[in-house]
Amino acid sequence: EVQLVESGGGLVQPGGSLRLSCATSGFTFINYNMNWVRQAPGKGLEWLSYISTISTTIYYADSVKGRFTISRDNAKDSLYLQMNSLRDEDTAVYFCARVRGPLVVVNDYWGQGTLVTVSS
Amino acid sequence: EIVMTQSPATLSVSPGERATLSCRASLSVRSNLAWYQQKAGQAPRLLIYGASTRATGIPARFSGSGSGTQFTLIISSLQSEDFAVYYCQQYNKWPLTFGGGTKVEIK
Predict the structure, then answer these.
(1) What average pLDDT does this structure show over A53-73?
(2) In whole numbers, what is the pLDDT of chain A averaged over residues?
(3) Which of A60, B34, B36, B88 gives the lowest tally of CB atoms within 10 Å of its CB?
């Protein structure tokens, strides 16, 4: 069974940092590209970042470029999101998601999400 | 970036009835369009990709159509478990973008 489990969310002050993790199981992690997607309270979905299988291709949304860094450890079947210079508007549930295929950049499996609250 | 616009924002439908959801792209995305379902407190679930291909395990009552800039998701006969929010997403061009969602509620 494919599983993705996010962790690392919590309350952080504006300007602070947080590192999210996504532990995966049930599939061969190194074979799949991955995404981070977030959802602000009561709002829609916002794609944040993409990383290819061996980290050669990385993309960011403009809203997080220069502040967030995506990475992965294929030996640990894990995905990460380092978030710096956090702002109030970064408050959201953060999801990691598996990308279905190299040319089909849709998210076929999702974690349950981890809540990040940015507030003083 | 490509802006995805969904309509209507809310759709009130009786169980057993048909629901038609629309998604429009600001530029052509060819057939690189997906639909997701999200229930309250849950992660989204992939329903459709390639505009019309059902994902694994998705019932046949869900069907997608369209190409270019206009897309439609039809739920042929609404079941109680189908009341949720539906999002479209284009993957033709970076950044990936989602529509604002359509909430399908019980009439």
Answers:
(1) 98
(2) 97
(3) A60
pLDDT score recorded for residue A103: 86
Single-letter residue type at B75: I
Instruction: Give the per-residue pLDDT at B24.
Output: 98
Contact at CB, A59 and B98, closer than 8 angstroms: no
Which chain A residues are within 8 Å of B56, Cβ to Cβ? 108
Radius of gyration over every alpha carbon of chain A, rounded to an integer in angstroms: 13
Give how far the C-alpha of residue A95 lies from the chain's centroid of Cα atoms, to the nearest Å. 6
Residues of chain B with pLDDT under 50: none
Establish whether the linkage from the previous residue to B8 is cis, with ω within 30° of 0.
yes
Whether B47 and B62 have beta carbons less than 8 Å apart is answered as yes
pLDDT given at position A102: 84
B100 closest CA partner among A42, A62, A113: A42
- Tokens 């069907």 belong to B63
Mutate to test the interface with A, among B39, B48, B96 (most CBs of A within 10 A): B96
